[in-house]
């Protein structure tokens, strides 16, 4: 008797990106009823989770630190696309959207992702261990980029207000690209061992022994990751009027839209970092956190600078006094966290408190 072939249904991680693109095609350019807005939000959340899964499959195949780099670049593509799209369709408030989103990304990654990873890792495994050389270099890159692009515009005198002149913006964009490229080369080629997990004795650990996916599975996940990213960018753009209306209805400052965008696009990074921390791979979590901050500044600012050629209105990049104080405090706390090469739940709690302060003051400046 002939064997009956069984039809295997695709997994939700395969269905979600395709469903997201189909929903994007149906809803693009239309005024949506509240029910459809809620449906788009639900599909968007599931698609983000699917993107995390496929990024982790690719990461497992290429190994660390390449895996963290893949997810960081993927998330930054979402962020850049959203910022440029909203700035192109926005009014005067859009002039500070890039600054608000990038600064929010820096605070969420250096305090939120790092804090969650350290807290979860310490709660499950005790003292968390990581490579201070690699993490310290990444932190230095983040803070240099943040100062060059977000602090200096407040103090330059060529143009009034917290913005660069044309040549100054070009220099900041070029410097951001150079620093990003230098970091990627250091992380993936010259000093890759600085970004690998370490043991109690300080010896570099080998890669995880989980079986790597096949080339076919990796290529499939890479393709689905790209589809998921397209869906996330598009669906988030569709949700943006609802986000802006919700922020306005709640009485929050318009700058809080940038915080919402950063929270949305960094959700994949946060989930992946938390999973790595629970597996006692704190270095992977720090690679994700600091790598995302570097990519957020190093790729977003040059893209926005290029976009100003056809975008109308000023580009406000300089932070205010309160934001600079939060950034300075983040720098000091992060240095004290990274230098020892180990941390406890206390450090995780401190970083999360800084994130809470940032979010509270973003609502009540």
From TrEMBL:
The keyword Nucleotide-binding does not apply. Its main location: membrane. Keywords: Membrane, Transmembrane, Transmembrane helix. Residues 34-188, 221-362 form the Sodium/calcium exchanger membrane region domain. InterPro entries: Alkaline_pH_Ca-Antiporter, NaCa_Exmemb. It is found in: Membrane. The chain crosses the membrane at residues 7-26, 32-54, 66-90, 102-123, 135-156, 168-186, 217-236, 256-278, 290-311, 317-339, 346-363. It is a multi-pass membrane protein. This is Ionic transporter y4hA. The lineage of its organism: Bacteria, Bacillati, Actinomycetota, Actinomycetes, Pseudonocardiales.
